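To close the chapter, one final illustration. This time we ask the reader to focus less on the individual chains and more on the assembly as a whole: which components sit near each other, and how the overall shape emerges from the parts.
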Amino acid sequence: MKQVIRITALFALAMIIMQAPMAQQRLQLNINYNIATPIGATFRDYINKTSFRGAQGSVLYGINNHFSVGVQASYNDFYQKYGRQVYKATDGSDISVVPSNTLQSVPVLVKGEYSFLNKGLVKPYIGLGAGIHFVDYDQYLGEFEYDKHFTKAAFTGDAGLMVPFRRSSNYGFRLGTSYQLMPFKEESIKNLDSWDVQAGVSIPLSK
Amino acid sequence: MKKVQFSILVFSVALALMATSCRKDVINHLSNAESRVYITKRDSAVNFANYRTFRIADSVSVIEDGHLVKHAYTPYDSSMIAALTQEMTQRGYQLQTDDAIKPDLGIDISRIITSYTGTVSYDDYWGYFGNYWDPYYWGYGGYGYYFPYTFGIYTFREGALSVDMLDLKNPNTGSKKLNTIWTGLGYGTGIFDVANVNEEVQALFNQSTYVQQ
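The assembled structure is written out below.
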C-alpha cells in the first residue's frame, strides 16, 4: 500500500505541477507493459529470472517537434524460489530453509526524449532519465519473511519506435528497450541494473 | 486543464494499483514442506563417535507460553519417538532398553506452542529446561543442565519442535550438570502433523552427519 501511495503521489504531483502552465496540445501519455531482466553478478546471485510482472507509464511534454520532457514511473516484481539449502549461521548453527527471493523495483524519473522524425510511418526515439528508485527487498526463509525498504538513485537510457495508428495521428503503438542503471550496495547486492523491453500505447492528452 | 489533471491523476492511481497488484504471492507458492525451517546446533568439542547407547524419553513435554502443561504421548509424539529411535539406530547407536543401565545419550523431545503470533526467546526456553525435564528422569536427581550454546529469538506461527541430546556418559559431577550436546529445532506450517514426522527427522539429521557412531 505504501508503494501505491508513493507512486501515485510523486507521479501525479509532478505531472500536475509540470503541465499546469503548459499547452496541452503537446502533452503525450505513454502506457507500457514492461519486462525486466537482471544484469550484474550480484543481482543475478539474488535473482536471475526475468520479471514479466511490470508496467511503465510516462507523461511527456513536447518542447518542440523533436524534444519532449516529462516524468516516467515503472514497476517490476522480481521473484525466484530456490531448492532447500543448508546455511551455516554466524553462531555455528546449521539452518535448513527453502529461500524465496523477491524484489519490487519502482523508479520514478524525470525524463527527456528525442524523436528523430515528427512525421512518417515509424518514429524512432531515444531518451535519458534520472530520478529516485524505491526498492522493496523481501527475502523469505521458508514462510518467514525478512523485509527491507530502500530509496536510491536511478538512471535510464532507452530507445524505441512509435508507430502511429494512422498517418496523421498522435495515437500510436510504442515498442522500446531500455537499460536501467540502479546503484544499490545493500544486502550484498552491488546494483540492481536491468535490461528492459516495453510495449504499449501512446495517447495525446490534447483536445 | 482540469480534465487533463484529473486524467493524469486517474492514470497514476490506475498505474500504481495495476503495477503493485502484480506481485508474486510467495507464501501461496510454498508447499507446507517448503515452509518449514530446521535448525541444528552442536557442542563442537564433542566427538559423537564416543557414544554407544541411547534412550529416548517415553513422553513429550508440551510447553505453552513458557509453561510446562503436560507430558504427552499423542500419535505425533509416539511417531516422533519411533522415528528418532530408527534414525539413531541407523547411525550405529544401540537402544538401551534396560532401565537399570544408564545409556550414554538421553534424548528429550518438546513441543513448544505459543498462543500469540510473536517472538520466542529460546534463551528463555532453555532457562526453564530443568522445569520441563527434571534430570531425575535420567537418574541424575539434583543435577541441572548445561547448554554450551544459545539460540536467538525466532518468530513462528504454529509452534516448534525441539529435540535435545544429553550427555549421560560424562555428567559434570563438580557443577552437577548434564551437558546438552546437540539440539534440533523445527518450525513452520504442519510441524506437528503426524504425516511429516519422517521428513522432519530426516531434515534434522541430514544436516547433522557428525551424529554417527
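The radius of gyration of chain A is 20 Å. Chain A has one domain: 2-204. With these observations in hand, you are ready for the problems at the end of the chapter.
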